[in-house]
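User: Hi! I'm working on a homework problem where we have to compare a predicted structure to a textbook description. Could you give me the structure for the chain below?
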Amino acid sequence: SDRRTDRVGMPPPTTPALVSGGGLFVDYKKGEIPELKNLLRDSAVDKDPKTKRALMERVVGYMTLGIDMSPLFSEMIMATATKDLVQKKMCYLYLSNYASLQPEMALLVINTLQKDARDEDPMVRGLALRCLCSLHVENVLEYLVQPVMTGLHDVSAYVRKTAVICVIRLRELSEDIVAERSLVHELFHLLNDRDPQVVANAVHAILELQGDAALKMLACKSVVIRLLKRLRDFNEWSQCLILKVVAEFKPESDEEKFEVMNFLDERLRHCNSAVVVATVKVFLNLSANQPEIQRHVVERTKAPLVAQMTGAKSEVAYVLLRHIHVLVQQAPGVYDDEYLAFFVRYSDAPYVQNLKIKILCLLTNASNFMKIVEEITSLVSPHEVPLSQAAIQALGEIGVRRARAAPLVADKLSALLRRTWANHEQVHKECISVAVDLLRAFPPLSAILLPILTERFSTVEPNTPAQVSLVWVLGQFSSDIPEAPYLLESMIEEWEDTPSAALRSELLSATVKVFFQRPPEVQAMLGKVLKAGLGDATNVDVHDRALFYYRLLSTDPAKAQQVVTSGAPESTQFVDEGSEELQERLIEAFGTVSVVYGIPEQRWMSASALASRHLVADPAVAARSITELEGPPPSTLAPPPSLPAASVGIYTQDNHAVTNGAHDTSHGTGH
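Assistant: Happy to help. Predicted structure tokens:
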């Protein structure tokens, strides 16, 4: 099409005058339908194919604009009697759209389509069969079965591949027809078809009809080897489907496993990222129970995935980054040398920028942390507040994860807190929260951070998480902050104007801590804050904390001091870490939407959708073996004893993977 498209690849918004100057669509004029009806009935128009085609383009164009063209139904049925394939396509599109609105004319439509399904032209037969199965009218099943059964054995590959998809439509109309007509058995026979698209459609239809049971049946050695031998003949989306089946294959030996991996290694150079991800999924499944081999697999697939991510559009790059994020967690250290590829570009979409920052945190090690910290710090600016907040959080995460990086991160946070620019409050609040988290992990950093944090106490916005963090600093490091009691006193005086329960709770804890460090200065304040906390009826947590401190101090002050000032054990583990079960599920779901969401499918798919995977259209077929169903292969496709030898033996039993850089990661042309 030569129509103008916008930056996301979609057509421009439609307007009443969509295209002028001889374009496809023109202004719709009221009362034009009778005029179109007369033109469609005009015999002179029938004799001029060019005029007739332009007329039908107007009808279909109005239909796509949402204008009701159903009054022309009978005329469009008569227009199907043409040898012009383009006109037939437009007629079929019209009939599929309006058949449900003209139930009294539906039988005439069906008769017309059944006649075309027996046409001598295979394109007409295929189009008619597709249109016939697209009709949404009652009692259409009895008219569909025979054309579909005939189409499955048609001499034309186009008709056969259309008929295969129509089998799924039959299942939607009747759950019993599939078993009664042995349609699944017919589909298994089509796995031997000469045309690759027919084979791919047959695999898709079997999976739709038989669910997970079909996936296990197809993943047998004879079918997998046959599909792999023809893998290059399939288009890229069909290759993804075939690789989905291969991913469920369970080799009988390591030799067989490495043979499959060697054969599929060249698919990593495919230009389509979906094929690359599907191939990685196969490799991960084949090495699932062998961690050492799986680590080599991650190393082997690193360069192709990074190359695809670097040159992809934002949407595709985000999906690839999600998969890379899972692999980075699965094999720590493997991607560390590729950290430059994850540096944020200002042309990246915000969601890509945030994910790159998360991955950079995982790639930080003793040799690259300085460059990564410098790069992330450069992202902080008042113009991109969300990006700045994500960058500051990443700095804190790197500082806590890597003890060697903590002093550098503390210096960067201190420098950011000293900078003043327009709208800097949000950045400063994030810096304060992250700096306090760093102090919790590494108290010796107080020499770097305490001076600037104390300065920010007077400028921080009240009743915010940043102020809560600063109050914690006053309580924890009161011996190093001379003005700590007086800063707390001013806040205790404003207790009634402090609606934040978190701030009130932290004030209680900080006052008790400062009391044990500097009793004479804080004794009066302690009684005042405990009284205010015990009288707090707005929040149970505040009241209970005040009551706990009061009883503890009344019972044994020495024990109270031991409890309050003991501190918490150091921990560098984040909340999202340690979930081995989640990581295992994401590896199992590699190549699916679950990886993009970052959660297992059980948490985002409905129960009915999950249950549908276990529905079987033909239980008798599911109980049989694949050898009973596929039958003898045709003479043109003899059963292969093994896979063809790969050009280079990448995976072997002695040397699991060679990662010396000889692997070509450039974008292939695809087959």
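For your comparison, note the following. The first helix runs from residue 32 to 41. DSSP finds 36 helices and no strands in the chain. Good luck with the assignment!
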